[in-house]
C-alpha cells in the first residue's frame, strides 16, 4: 500500500506533494487513517535518497527495485542487524530506514555512504555511466528535490 505523507498546518493536515494529494483524493469520505508521526527526519531527504537509488534502477534493468537495491547495498555497507534464523544460522538483516527507526543524522550519514558506494561501484551498478554524470544527477536531486 502506498504511504500518505501529511504535513500539519494550523487547524489541518495537508498532503506533502502531488503523489500524496492523488492518493488522498482517492480515499472515500469517512475513511479512517492510522497516523504515525515522527520527529527529527526530513521527508524531502528521504525522497531524495530514493530518487538517487532510482537513478541506478532506471539505468540498469538488473536491479528490480530501489527497495531491493537499498537492502543489498546496506548489507555491503554493514548497515545491518545480526540475528539467528530458525535453523540456528547467523544472518545479517538490513536495518530499517523508516522515519521512526532512524534519526536525521544517521540518515544523512547513510545517504553519504550510499553516494560513495555507488560511485565506487558505478561500473557494476550502471555500466557506461561516468562518475561526473552520476554526481550531477545527485547534485540536481539535492538542489531541486
What does this structure look like?
The chain folds into two domains: 1-35, no CATH class; 43-144, no CATH class. It is 50% helix and 12% strand. It has helices at 18-26, 43-59, 66-77, 104-120, 122-125, 131-144, and strands at 6-9, 12-15, 80-84, 90-94. The strands form two sheets. Strands 1-2 form a two-stranded antiparallel ribbon. Helix 2 (43-59) crosses helix 3, helix 2 packs parallel to helix 4 and helix 2 (43-59) packs antiparallel against helix 6 (131-144). The mean pLDDT is 90.
**Beta-strand segment tally:** 4
Instruction: Report the uncertain regions.
Output: none
Helical residue percent band: 40-55%
Total number of helices: 6
Q: Structural class, from helix and strand content?
A: alpha+beta
State the distance separating the first and last CA atoms.
23 Å
Portion in beta strands = 5-15%
Main β-sheet description: 2 strands, antiparallel
Q: How would you state the average pLDDT, rounded?
A: 90
C-alpha Rg, in Å?
A: 18 Å
Strand order of the largest sheet: 1-2
Order of helices and strands: EEHHHEEHHH
Number of domains: 2
Amino acid at each position: 500500500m502506498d504511504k500518505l505523507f501529511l504535513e500539519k498546518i494550523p487547524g489541518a493536515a495537508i498532503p506533502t506533494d502531488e503523489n500524496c494529494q492523488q492518493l488522498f483524493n482517492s480515499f472515500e469520505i469517512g475513511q479512517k487513517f492510522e497516523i504515525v508521526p515522527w520527529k527529527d527526519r526530513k521527508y524531502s531527504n528521504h525522497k531524495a535518497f530514493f530518487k538517487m537509488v532510482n537513478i541506478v534502477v532506471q539505468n540498469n534493468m538488473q536491479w528490480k527495485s530501489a527497495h531491493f537495491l537499498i537492502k543489498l547495498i546496506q548489507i555491503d555497507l554493514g548497515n545491518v542487524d545480526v540475528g539467528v534464523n530458525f535453523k540456528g544460522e547467523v544472518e545479517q538483516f538490513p536495518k530499517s530506514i523508516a522515519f521512526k527507526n532512524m534519526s536525521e543524522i544517521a540518515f544523512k550519514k547513510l545517504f553519504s555512504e550510499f553516494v560513495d558506494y555507488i560511485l565506487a561501484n558505478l561500473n557494476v551498478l550502471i555500466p557506461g555511466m561516468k562518475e561526473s554524470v552520476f554526481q550531477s544527477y545527485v547534485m540536481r536531486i539535492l538542489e531541486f528535490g
